[in-house]
Design goal:
heterodimer, A: 442 residues, 64% helix, B: 494 residues, mainly alpha, 2 strands, 1% strand
């Protein structure tokens, strides 16, 4: 009895059996740890998911914009239609106002084998051809009036609705009345596609055309030129001014209240909403200085002011990174302070400065809000010859197309966004490569 | 003489001065450059600077002063009957005169004479030269236009003569000054330093320009609409700017716009803050180097995407998706497939803006969390805390002031954001609490009031500047307060 009563305490205190563990909530705490980690992962996943969704939705909507349906058919430049009374020699205006869409329609009808049709049929046929065919055929005839009376192959744009249908973007199961293409047109479309008359080509017009109310003829050409002008102005103004300002602040400025004020100022300017710069541009450059509205030069100036703080901050960081020993060595050899900075410090800081500048330019390229206020929301169909002519910019063109209701413009909008993103990617990759290639570690 | 040709001539004189100055310095050195105070190039630059800078300053002053002077003399020559008219009418008359004057140089002598004798055909005559006029000009206008044309031609001639003379004189005088003892380098460097100072004062000038331009335009606005009606008005209904009529002003209440701005900003912060903070914590405390080096740049891509792209994403993808899914939900719940979320809504705009703000929150907080000293973490871990406990109880409290600063900066970005709300928030200025309905913001209304035809006299246009200065002050206060907090915090560990 005594043996059995004494043994359990022995084992409990001493050698083999584990003590009953006190519950200090370790399992709960580890679970909390795992949950916390999971939240972090989920947050990153959420961000990346939406990055992916954003890019996917843009690309999936927009990649088709780089292709355009075209119709290639023999068109008879019928004298009967264009110049019935043969008065073009006397009156050159006649050729400008002739009814060109008719000959395109007739050519298409002949191709489709529709020999005689009522008005509704003919209207449906001309509904398959872009209105831009008028200008296209007119240019052919005006350039060479001898084509009248002959027949030659012409390639022209299909109408935006037919283009959407041909790319499979129109739901054909919807009732015929509620969609933009009729069943008959779809039938003709398939017929044309089989015979190779209707085909998709690379859409060069997207990069060369200006604004148009017809989606199939609209392009970002004018916007690209306008953006190019503005980027040049921003580069030419903000790089020297920004570098000069940073050199003064970093290398020469005495530490006093004024330079403190400038510093605080620059930091705040970097955080001012971009739309405020638009108001500044409108009040100062357009209303006060009398520069033209919608011109690339005003946009360039506004974006310059907006980009300056970014460039100044980047340049100061780059100058700060150059070790003081370089300066001491130059000064010790008798260089003046100015020579030290311009001959030694600045060249060493150049890669950092250029990287900052490219990133600032990329921001300026994507900026829309200030440009809306200075009137760049303009319908500009002609390529601007100088920065003083009315122009538009790539992001503004996107904004204008985003407000259009037609299905074909959604595709164009996404296509223009892809073009913009490609430019931004190129600039950022360039900045990264520049940094990799030239950056020095001291 | 045209401006660009004049600039070219001045530049040519500058280059010639540079070459001549350095050549003369070399000559004076007599083959031994150490006889000179500065290197020859500095003497050349000295001459070029003396030639170009006074000439360019003169050109600038002339270009600003001469149009003002000409306008005032022409206006002084107006007939008394015209001078009696109100200021705005006189401005219109002057604009017409300058339009006619623009057409004059394109005419031949006979056409000019015909114009002077017979004012009646002026409009058709000018239209043929590519100068459209709004109405038939009065006889005195043709006379004034000819005066204006003569004055402009004379002004441009004198400008050219004086500027070239100034450049030549500067070059000549400074060339005469060149001597071995001339401290050319110091003088050139003095000018360079002046240029650097001027460049850095542009930052100040920009701020002054923003404040001054918006204050003056807003002051015009407050002349026609009382300030308290603007700041405390609860109805936004600006009406259309009726041409000429100043009496037809609508109601300009800021409160509904501000409510929409803050509401949408709040929704955006609701998305961005938890996601951004957790991402920052994970990246700074848990993630391996490799993971971090891939994911951090990827998240920062979100910050590099232009806001117009987010706006389009919200309008074309997120909005319709929310609308359709809400229709499905209400259909399942009540059997009535009507969407309760509108395509343009506070939720759509706020959510997408939140996604845009994630990288701002995460990279700012990441820097701040990383700056918390290692020793604090080691102490906590050594006492047996798990990593998440260390983060929650030690790291985050230490980083809190900095994080609050970062969040304030992010909030100021949310308030000033434009393109997303323009495309996805709607234009109806209403005060309500349902996040599924559209609301509008200050920035949307600035854009709405300023796109289209502008008239710098109507309150409908000027209200945009009052809105702008409000926006500027709000974001400025947020940023200054954020900087203050961040600076104060930073000193703790240094």
């Amino acid at each position: 009895m005594s043996e059995t009563s004494t043994t359990p305490p022995m084992t409990a205190i001493g050698i083999s059996a584990a003590p009953a563990r006190r519950d200090i909530g370790l399992g709960r705490r580890y679970a909390a740890e795992r949950r916390f980690r999971l939240y972090g992962m989920a947050a990153i996943g959420f961000g990346l998911l939406f990055l992916f969704l954003l890019l996917f939705s843009v690309v999936s909507k927009g990649y088709t914009a780089f292709q355009q349906s075209m119709i290639t058919i023999p068109v008879e430049f019928s004298e009967q239609v264009l110049d019935r009374n043969n008065e073009r020699a006397a009156n050159p205006q006649k050729l400008m106002t002739a009814n060109y869409p008719i000959i395109a329609r007739d050519a298409l009808a002949r191709q489709l084998g529709v020999t005689e049709g009522d008005r509704a049929t003919l209207r449906e046929i001309s509904g398959m051809i872009s209105d831009s065919v008028r200008a296209q055929l007119r240019d052919i005839v005006v350039a060479d009036p001898s084509v009248i009376g002959t027949t030659r192959d012409v390639t022209f744009l299909a109408h935006g609705n037919l283009d959407s249908a041909f790319k499979g973007q129109i739901d054909l199961s919807v009732d015929e009345k509620n969609r933009k293409v009729s069943d008959r047109q779809v039938g003709w479309m398939n017929q044309l596609a089989e015979s190779g008359v209707l085909a998709k080509h690379f859409n060069t017009g997207l990069f060369t055309n200006g604004a148009s109310s017809r989606p199939e003829a609209a392009g970002v050409g004018v916007a690209l030129i306008g953006s190019l002008y503005m980027m040049l102005i921003v580069l030419v103004l903000s790089l020297p001014i920004g570098v000069a300002a940073s050199i003064y602040l970093e290398e020469f400025a005495p530490k006093n209240r004024l330079t403190d004020l400038i510093e605080v100022n620059i930091n705040n300017l970097a955080a001012v909403p971009s739309i405020v710069y638009g108001l500044l541009g409108l009040a100062v450059f357009i209303n006060f200085a009398g520069l033209p509205r919608s011109a690339a030069i005003v946009g360039g100036l506004v974006l310059t002011l907006m980009t300056l703080p970014t460039i100044i901050i980047a340049t100061r960081a780059a100058l700060k990174a150059v070790p003081p020993s370089i300066r001491s060595a130059a000064l010790g050899l008798g260089a003046s302070k100015m020579q030290t900075v311009f001959h030694h410090v600045l060249p060493l800081a150049m890669p950092g400065i250029l990287t900052g500048t490219i990133i600032g330019l990329a921001h300026a390229l994507g900026e829309t809000a200030p440009l809306l206020l200075i009137g760049m929301v303009a319908f500009v169909a002609d390529v601007p010859g100088t920065p003083l002519d009315p122009a538009t910019a790539l992001p503004v063109q996107i904004y204008m197309w985003a407000n259009e209701a037609e299905r074909a413009f959604v595709e164009r909008t996404s296509g223009a966004i892809i073009v913009l993103l490609i430019f931004l990617i190129l600039m950022n990759v360039g900045a990264i490569l520049l940094r990799r290639r030239f950056e020095r570690r001291w | 003489m045209s401006m660009s040709l004049l600039l070219l001539i001045v530049a040519a004189i500058g280059v010639a001065g540079y070459l001549a100055g350095s050549w003369r310095a070399r000559g004076l050195a007599g083959g031994k450059l150490s006889n000179l105070h500065s290197r020859p190039g500095y003497y050349g630059s000295f001459v070029a600077i003396c030639a170009m800078i006074p000439a360019l300053l003169l050109l600038l002053a002339w270009s600003i002063a001469s149009p003002i002077y000409i306008q005032s003399t022409i206006r002084a020559g107006f007939p008394e009957s015209v001078k009696m008219q109100p200021e705005a009418t006189q401005n219109l008359s002057y604009n017409m005169i300058s339009a006619i004057a623009r057409g004059l140089p394109r005419m031949t002598q006979e056409e000019r004479r015909a114009l002077a004798e017979d004012g009646a055909s002026a409009r058709t005559l000018l239209a043929a030269k590519g100068v459209p006029l709004a109405s038939e000009p009065e006889p005195y206008m043709v006379q004034s236009a000819q005066d204006l044309d003569r004055a402009t031609v004379a002004s441009s001639l004198w400008r050219a003569v004086l500027v070239i003379a100034a450049a030549a004189a500067g070059a000549f005088l400074s060339f005469r000054l060149i001597a071995p003892r001339l401290r050319a380098r110091n003088r050139v460097e003095g000018v360079m330093l002046g240029g650097l100072v001027a460049a850095s004062s542009i930052a100040i000038l920009t701020t002054v320009g923003i404040v001054a331009s918006m204050l003056t335009e807003a002051a015009h606005f407050f002349n026609s609409v009382p300030a308290w009606e603007f700041f405390f008005g609860t109805v936004w209904d600006p009406r259309f700017a009726a041409a000429g009529a100043t009496g037809s002003s609508g109601q300009f209440g800021l409160v509904p716009l501000l409510a929409g701005t803050l509401y949408i900003g709040f929704v955006a912060m609701l998305v961005a803050v938890p996601v951004g903070l957790f991402a920052a914590v994970y990246m700074s405390e848990y993630a391996s180097r490799g993971f971090r080096s891939v994911v951090k740049p990827l998240l920062e891509v979100l910050a590099g995407i232009p806001t117009i792209v987010y706006g389009f994403f919200a309008m074309a993808t997120v909005g319709p998706f929310l609308r359709d899914i809400s229709a499905q939900i209400s259909g399942l719940a009540t059997g009535n497939y009507a969407s309760f979320i509108q395509a343009q809504s506070v939720l759509t705009a706020g959510f997408v803006m939140g996604i845009m703000l994630i990288p701002y929150v995460s990279s700012l907080s990441d820097d701040i969390i990383t700056a918390v000293p290692r020793a604090l973490r080691d102490g906590s871990l050594g006492l047996g805390a798990t990593r998440s406990e260390t983060i929650k109880k030690v790291v985050l409290p230490a980083a809190l002031p900095g994080i609050v600063g970062a969040l304030l900066m992010t909030a100021s970005r949310a308030i000033g954001e434009t393109m997303i709300v323009v495309l996805a928030a709607g234009v109806a200025a209403r005060m309500q609490l349902n996040p599924f309905e559209p609301m509008t913001t200050v920035t949307v209304k600035i854009v709405n009031q300023l796109t289209g035809d502008l008239e710098f006299t109507s309150p409908q246009t000027l209200v945009a500047f009052a809105l702008g200065i409000t926006l500027f002050v709000i974001t400025l206060c947020l940023n200054i307060y954020a900087l203050y907090i961040v600076r104060k915090y930073r000193e703790q560990y240094e």
